[in-house]
Every structure is written in structure tokens, then in C-alpha cells.
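Inputs:
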Amino acid sequence: MNISDILRIAIRSIASNRMRSALTMLGIIVGVASVVIMVALGSGARAMVVEQIRSLGAYVLMVLPGEASDQGVRQEAGTGQSLTQGDAEAIASALPTVAAAAPSVRGVFQIVSGNQNWRTTVNGTTGDYFFIREWALAEGRYFTDEETLAGAKVILIGKTIATQLFNKDENPVGQSVRIANAPMTVIGVLSEKGPTGTGRDQDDIVFLPISTARQRLMGGANQIDREAVDYILVKASSHEMMPIAEQQIAWLLRQRHGLRPAQSDDFRVTDPAATMAAQTASTRVLSWLLASVASVSLVVGGISIMNIMLVSVAERRREIGLRLAVGARRRHIRMQFLVEALVVCLLGGAVGLIVGIFGTALLAGLAGWPAFLSPAAMVMAILFAGITGVFFGYYPARIAARSNPIDCLRSN
Amino acid sequence: MLKGVSLKIRAGEFVAIMGPSGSGKTTLMNLLGLLDTPSGGRLCFEGQNVTRLKPDEQAAIRNSRMGFVFQSYNLLPRLTAIENVELPLIYARVGRGERVERARRMLAAVGLADRSEHWPNQLSGGEQQRVSIARAMVSRPALVLADEPTGALDTRTGANVMSLLKEMIRQGTTVVLVTHDESVAQHAERTIRLFDGKLCAPSHHKVAVDAEPFLLTDQVRKAAE
């Protein structure tokens, strides 16, 4: 009795009990399909976060001023004015681990174009900002170093601003807008970055040279120190250099700010990608959780297989008795039922895979969830279906193999 | 339950076993067919002591040396006639081609060449019994055990089945037949009568062919049935 004989017997038996076989498979189908869908959605969510981290730009560190303090009452982080444009220049020029540093000031202003208006974040920065964040242009150009120094009245706008202020057929480049009554010329539209992990629209933003922002928009706001900046964006030279750059920035700023060893930092260096990576970790936990829920349904499917196999063994006692009488060894009977369970599970797994793929496509297409089909997860799901079949099929198969031929032949 | 039953069946003999219900006919048949193990006594088959064999060893002998014909045919309903006949050969590890060929020839021998692809429920009772005889004979057994093979058949088809069994004898196969029917038993060379698990005086229809002792049960006792 070779493999093909055993397989033929198993397939014949499955085919002749279609309804029962289908019901047996149901649990496995649901299990495998949900594993495939869950892992696809999980890795989709993870890929989205990875994409968001990438949208920050690579090796980016953010330096924020310490909190302001008024007679012992501390304000929120970043409200201090301890960071200056000079700090940014020193970081960029003195530290070999740093590729670039861009000082930024920001405020929220109303932008008016013709009869349209929009309130948004306005960022005054240098041309390095776009290099650091690897932010490409959709149209137009960046501002030049001369424009940055001279305080030229030019702005770059995000995709959202472009759609809010201008018609589709209108080219925003070259258009004139007013920010806080100062006329500005749009010189470029930035490419789309999409929302951040927390859902903030990264394209709802306007950039202009930092000197322009100081002179035209924020002059009155930063009265204590006209050099103060709200944050400095830093690009480390490589991923490995990020922690070193972090330490060197801290050391440099302590030197520049004249802090004594006992004094705490009046600034903070953060790694926004690391913060997002922490979010990734939590989505990973979630997707494992979903996958384990799916595995539970595989186990439940396995138990239902055992159940139905036991019924099947009881119903087919005459067949077992006859096979034993004509000379089947116990292992032949055991193999027959085991292979039957295995084939049912693998068939169920294959159907589950197809259902899972369609389910994923449906969810991704209709609900717009990001999803990535993982071949590894599919192989694993099928493998688990097979293991389920062998594991839960073994006990009924053993019962069948241990039957007494006389009792079996006598039963109806 | 059998007590003090001692008997020899010679190779090529045609033996009928008769007796009322509960007399131990089925127990004796199960012991002869190695479907059961005796609780005491000795059982020999082809010179080999087979009293205490493991289930798989019994299965091996059943597979290669014995054939079974049941009153209720016991064909597998999900297999065609020819697949039913092939069954013993599958467990004898006979290759597919040879298996099909031998099963086909055997079906032809019982006159069912044109029924080989039919399902059991498409066959009449007589035809089903002929398929089961083909199945019993396909492995060229030394001993065929037939338990009331004509019990569910009318006289004419029963006679047909009996002539097939006699054809087996002619080819040298030993046949042991259980029956209630005296006219069926008349075909046999010898009738063993059981009553309350004991042997009654044997009756010989013919003088037994002198041959090597073939099968012997010695004081077989079955404690429980």
C-alpha cells in the first residue's frame, strides 16, 4: 500500500462525503483566512508607520528649547527661548557627525489668496530644511541662500495649501498671497507627504525664509531674543552616528549656553523616528494579537475535525472491519484516517488561503486599509493547517486502527 | 463459546459447518479465519501454530492465505465492483497495473466482466455476492471461509454461488462454509455439526481426500462470546 493508494482512498472518502467534508473544513478555512487577513492588515499598518517614519527624513534629530519658567511656574516644553540661530549654525559647522542643521521658527497665520483664505502653520527656516526632511518639490523651486539672508518675500506651500487656496487649473507658482498683510510670492509647491502617525496633515504648511518670518511675521513675538528659534532640525551623517550626534549636540549646546555641570539642560534633543518606532512596536503587538486570535480559530477548527473524524470512524466501522478482514494492518487503517484528516485540513487551508486573499483585497479596496499579503504568513497558515490535521486526526485514526474486526463487521 | 472442539480440515477439503443459533458456528469461523484469538487450546494453520499471533500477524495471514465471503456481502459502497475486488491486493502491496488486471480476470471468472465499473448498489444480491467471491479469490487463498453465502439469496442465484464455490474446490482451494440449509451442506464433502459449543458426530458425504493435515483446532475453548 503506497502513498498514492492511501491518497486515493482518502480523496475518495472525502469526495463521497462532500457535505461533511465541507463542514469539517469550515473551521480550518476560517482559521487560515483570518490568519492571512490579520497578518496582511497588521503588516499594512506597520508599513504605513514605516512610511511615515520615512516621510520625516532619514537620520533626523530635533532640538527643542527647554521650557520657559515664570517665577517657578514652568511652561510646556519648547516654550523657552534658549535656542538660537547661532546654535544651529554651530551644530552644522562644528560637528562632523552632523550633515546639516536648519533653524526654524513657526507660528499660525492666516493666508489670503484672492477671495480664499486658510489658517495654517507658517515655518520660517533655511533651505537645508528640505534637504534634511528629503522633501521634494512638486512644482517651482526652493528658496536660495541669498533669499534666506535677504529676507525675500517668497514662500513654498504644501499640497494642502495649494488645493485650498487655488483652483485645480491654476498654477500656484508665481501667484501672490498675503500672510499677516505681508504680500508673498509662491515660488514652489512641495510634494505630498501625507499625514503623520498621529494624523496631523504634514502638507498643511507654508515655508518661508527664516529672516523673512522674523522681519514680517514674528518680529514682535520674540522680543527677548531676536535670534531665538523654536526648534532646530538636524540631519546626522548616518544612522549609526545618530546617538553620537545626539551626545555631541548636547555637549556643544551646554558649552555654548555656558551651563555648569550642576545645571540641567535648557534644551532637548529628540529622535522623532524612534518615537514613531515605538508606535510601530505597538501595532506589531496588535497584529500578533490578531494573529493569535486567528490561530485560536485554527485550534477550534482542529477540534471540530477531531469531532467529525470520530463520528466518521464510528459510522464506518463496517468498512474498517472489512478492510481489517481482508488483511489491512493497523498502520494502514491509521494512515488512512490520518491522511484523510490531513487532506481535509490542507484542502481547507487552500480554500482559506483563497478566501483570505480575496478578503484582504476586499478590505484594502473597500475600506482603504493598507494591507500587505505576506507569503511567509500564508506558508505558515497552511503548515499550521496541516499540523492541525495530523494532531487532531491522530486520536480518531488510532481508535479506528485499534478496532476489533469482528465487532466492526457485526455492527451496522 | 466452544468446548472441547477438536478437528482437522485437510487442504482442498470442502467442509460445511451446521448448527442452531448460538451453537458456536460463528466463533469457530472467526477462529479459523484468525479474526479472533482463542482463550485456550491450540490452533494450527499450514503447519504453523497460530494460536497467539499479534493482530498484524493475523492480518498478514488473512491477507495472503485466506478469503472471506459474508452473508451480507460486505462490499464497500463507495468503491466500484472492481475496486472492491482489488482491496486485498492493495494491502498485499501488489502494483496497480497487476492489481487491476487480476481483479478484472477474477470478475470475468465470476461472470461479471461487464459490471466492473458498477457501484455495489447498482448490482443485484447475487451479483454482489459474486463480487465478494471474486474479492475472496483474488489473492489466490488457500482457505476460503464462507459465512452463510447463500443466506440472503433466492434458490436460483444461491445455486449459482454454490457452483462458484465448487469451482474453487476444483481448483484446490479449501472451503469452509457455515449454513443453516441442509441442501447447501449437501454440496460439502463433510459436515461438522455443532451443538452448545460441542462437536456432534461428524458425517462424511464422501471419503476425505488423504492429504497433509491442513488445519487443526485442538480443544478450542472460547470463554466468552
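Chain B is about 35% helix and 25% strand. Flag for discussion at group meeting.
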